[in-house]
From TrEMBL:
Cellular component terms per the entry's GO annotation: cytoplasm; plasma membrane
Keywords annotated in UniProt: Phosphopantetheine, Phosphoprotein, Transferase
Name of the protein in its database record: Beta-ketoacyl synthase
The keyword Transferase is annotated on this UniProt entry: yes
Organism whose genome encodes this protein: Gloeobacter kilaueensis (strain ATCC BAA-2537 / CCAP 1431/1 / ULC 316 / JS1)
Amino acid sequence: MSNATDRFAHLSPLQRALLKLEELQGKLTAANRARNEPIAVVGIGCRFPGGADSPESYWDLLKEGRDAIREVPEDRWDVEAFYDPELASPFKMNTRWGGFLEQVDRFDPDFFGLSKREAAGMDPQQRLLLEVSWEALEHAGIAPDKIAGSRTGVFIGLMTFDFFKLLNDPPARGSTGVANSIAANRLSYFFDLRGPSMVLDTACSSSLVTIDLACQSLRSGSSQIALAGGVNVILSPDATISSSQAGMMSPDGRCKSFDERANGYVRGEGCGIVVLKRLSDAVADGDRIWALIRGSAVNQDGRTNGLTAPNGLSQQAVLRAALDNAGVEAARIGYVEAHGTGTPLGDPIEVEAIKQVYGQNRPLDWPCLLGSAKTNIGHLESAAGIAALIKVVLCLHHRQIPPVVHFQNLNPNIVLEGTAFRIATALQPWPGGTDGPFAGVSSFGFGGTNAHVVLEAAPAPSIAVPEVTRPLHLLTLSARSAKALTVLASRLADYLEREPDLDLADVAATLNTGRTHFAHRLALIAASLPEARFLLATFAEGKQGAGLASARTGDSPPKFAFLFAGQGSQYGGMTRELYQTQPTFRRALDHCAQLTDGVLERPLLEVIFSDSGALDRTLYTQPALFALEYALVQLWRSWGVEPDAVLGHGLGEYVAACIAGVFSVEDGMKLVLGRAKLMEALPPGEEIAASVDLARLAESIPHSAPRLALLSNVSGDFFAPGKGPDSHYWCTHLRQPVRFDQQIQALAERQFSLFLEIGPSHTLSERGRRCLPEGSATWLSSLKKDTNDWQELLSALQALYLQGVAIDWQGFERDYPHQRLALPTYPFERRRCWLEPHEIKSYRGG
């Protein structure tokens, strides 16, 4: 039967209705599953006060309970001119502290393709987002250039425009440097992203609301990947003055969440970005998952007793909605990262809402801890939610909860006695009695927009046991400048010294597949982590080392040819190690060997790997070389290495023709087996008789025009476009000497300067080297007798990479399962990019 109607024609109407109902139920189940699918956090980037410029340093700050608050830096405003603890003037502030970043005037414009002048006219918030988003992608092990053109969404929380207020003159370039909307759009432009791109301002809840929007976008399919987070930079005293006059600021510059001394918050600045994927996609892509977002919700306070007054019932509602969306019972939540601004009335309202929701059906011996990152870094306003979320992701990852800084005695308006809730006062393990673990994050905007997110610890990674492993590994690093490359190598060497238990294969795979490859390149071959660390340190010190090479690639890679070796290059046991440790090569060689079954007396693989003299018999030599060289090409192609032209010497031209698409591997092997049998049977000098028999065999095989530039042994030159070898050609080929030197000259005349020998030795590359002036070309071999197979292969790949040949690193690592690691990210070369004094207002002197 040809269609579904025919297949189900024998069913009764009731049976067909039941089938249709089952189909609809299946679609509904799939839709519900997609709507509620957990969202994986696969990458993190951050720049927070106190030198917390990475997830690792942020976690160190949190777990050590450090306070990152300091006096207003001199380059922001003259604090003495604006500070008055008595607020005697409406133009004064009652605080002189804040959570400030270092050197927000510095940026790496060259890295992002900007002139220094254009970068100087950009809001530092845009510049922070560019750097931190790049770092988040690298932290995720996602090469930023590989997501170009993808449906990657960008969701950014941003509420201030201090830089715009600094300008004396109208903004340049159509306001692209200062328009808040451009903060997200510039990311989409720079990375060439095609998903939704938006900036959101719900005040202090902005960046947590972006998480909710990003999760919705991922679940609906409008985004494949999402970058979500927020940024806040304080350049003007205006907002601090306004908040001081409203009685919101802590006069002593300390956020004392939940404490009886709570007297307001302290402003902070920073930037945080998370990379999000649907869980199913993250698992399929082999991503490292830091935590799962199970559900989220956003609501509004509506009419309260004041526009900025919190609404406890609305806070309860948003917590319940998030739990409902997550499908998680309230009692399973072991930690809540509260909004916790440290205001004497706001904290009690929030804690009461948490108790009412998360205390439901919770036994007293199932504790739930409360905390707030604002006690460490201040209130980051539009970046506060993402700072809180990243904290909780790290808590779940480490299964620890850091202390609440400045907490001494509980706010008397907060009642925790007789409940399962308590304030986290010291670094401690995740509280017992919960299976998950699970956590909640709250963020409330002062205009009434509330957000809550429910997270779960990442599932245990499924670690695949590799079928085989490589004995050697190739590690690649690159940068936009030689200086940055040296710094990156030094950082990685230090990191590997601190993390001696890492798997070198994981390190190599993360570097090779998870980074954009720039012109300044370093590649090293190592067998162990200590060896790799030593070579990196050696490079960073400006020294040379065996297995270590670096170069700056040109604007385009050189023209590149494969050279296929002929009879005489074989030796017993060739490629035995490669066959045992490289699945792609093994599959291709096995296929070729199977094509000889029933034709040869002995199994081809047995002949190739043995040390007997059988391999030197033409009957075995030629199919063995054809099989081996064909398999090598499949390996190189799986690594993305494709030549511009192919040249074969003698028997090697059959492989070259096969690779160029003249005939299939099956037909090629059939032709080679016939040729070998004829040549073995005939005494020397009777090639003419053999060529007649070969012609009959060749005529039975379909030939196509080459799809790659192919050179002829007979003419010593390229085949004309649309022309290639045919049955007559192979007869002539058998009787004519090989014009190898002429072929090399023909390639050189067409500006070919990179040659890779495909075969078991370096016979052709050594001969070719003598054909051209010294230093005019690079000669590489895939294998070499008496040399470790992987050593020679990786040395060739190393050279190709440094020459700028495009490598498919995903293909290179495909046969070897690995875990992605969070390795040191790109070392931006920042310099001062700021407007001239006459172009901006001064906040010095009042």
